[in-house]
Amino acid sequence: MQEHSNKGQKIKSFIKTLMKAAVEEVKSISAGVFVMVLSCAVISVLGLGVISLKVSNDKLQRDNKNLSDKHSQEVSKYEESLEIIQQEIESKDEIIQNQQETIKNNETEKNQLADTLKEQIENLDLTKSATSRSDSEVNSIKNSIAETELLIRDYFGYSEKGNELVNLLHNKADAFQDTIDRYPDFYPTEGFIGSPFGYRKDPIDGTTRFHSGVDIGKRTGTPIFASGKGMVTFVGFEDGYGLYIIVNHGNGYETKYAHINESFVQVGDIVEKGQHIASMGMTGRATGPHLHFEVILNDEVQNPANYIL
Fold this sequence. Notes:
The chain is of the alpha+beta class. It has helices at 2-26, 31-123, 135-156, 160-182, and strands at 192-195, 198-201, 208-211, 214-217, 223-225, 230-238, 242-250, 253-258, 260-263, 270-271, 276-280, 290-297, 300-302.
């Protein structure tokens, strides 16, 4: 544009010089010559104007072409960019679709596994023969339950399925523990075994008769504890047993605590395994302070020694 402006200035300067020369010539030439000179000057000016316009027009055409080429290049680059972006979008859409399909498949597998585990846990009977297991076996079962819970949490997390399976497992574990807690597996007081279970010579009249429990002797007031979890179903006095307590442990089990000095429970109380329920005495038919302890299964007396672990 600066070059075009310079050329225009030069043309204007040339025309002014030419006109000035023509005026000077007028003073010395005739009118006809003056007209001819003036005509030549006009023709020259017009010619130079045409040339100037052509130059300007050529430049404009070149500029337009350059702009058009540049525009075409930009459009081409833009189209290429759009194509690349479109390809990336399509690629990402495919990846997302594959991921969604994978997640869907995983969810199906998880649901199938959850249903299988649920069925297995529901069919699991930990209470069966639970009372005959040793301490090491009981601890092994508890460890297996804890490990199973960790595996469920690791795979299902705290999702609805995970929580449902863990709750089912806890219910089974609680039932297992409850069965163990109800089992009368320890002697309920301290002392020496005066008379075992079975036939014996009666210490009072000397006759041989069946002894339905175990006599554990010590001083009056010695604490007596519930040998298992259960409900107190009887607290009362009888000539033979003196003051005694019966605790129902469920699953057909009962225990009897006789010749006690004092009861600390009443009918309807729920007692825990090892709870202090009475004190030793010698009420009823007794030769000294002791506890007469019985284990009863389905209304039949059992040898307590068979239940001590």
